[in-house]
Give the backbone structure.
Amino acid sequence: MFSFFKKSDTVTSQETKLVILASIYMFCILMTEIMGVKTSPLGHISLHFWPINIPQLKVSMAIFFIPFIYCINDIIAQVFGYTAARNIYRISLFLIIALAFFSWLTTALPASMIFMDKEAAYDTIFGQTLRFSLASITAFAVSDILDVIIFCKLRDKLKGKSLWLSTNLSNFISEGLDGALFVYLAMYVPGTESFWSGNHAFMWGVILPYWVFRCGMSILSTPFVYWGVSWARKV
């Protein structure tokens, strides 16, 4: 039985490390999809600067997982190349689509008598509307591959130097686009209010602090990217 846990002679160290990175990456993807729908206020912080009028800044619970997604993106692209990063992106996109489909399916099916009192809580957690699911899929599909493309372009332009610049600049751009796309596709309600008030104020009250937090987390996680690249390159 314990032979199952022994190191295989037919799998290289780098192949094992790529599987480990991909597994953590996909775990973070799932946690972002499941837990990211909850937002939490940043105390009583508001933003009132003409023409911006945001009564309360908020941050999504996905903030705990998204920095790792983009860090691992950069580590895989740096060590294993664009093709490996793109393939893992494609698998993850399929994973999000499958999660959305089975979340819809399991909430649509009737509950048994023994589960009836828990059905409302179950539906609250997993019963994302089709609009939220499509918004999440679209935001990930655009921003994640954009992060890989920008990182690889910068890496080639800088000839492999200044990894900190490549990883942070690609993260800043792609994370900002991800947040804006998701929030607008999932929450926008057409109206006559000005761009920085009403429904827009709520959405930018989520987008702006979320992006700032993610940029801050990206900067703080830069040493993790350097460590990850060094670890993944070791034979």
Observations:
- Helices lie at 13-35, 66-80, 82-108, 119-126, 130-157, 163-187, 198-220, 222-233.
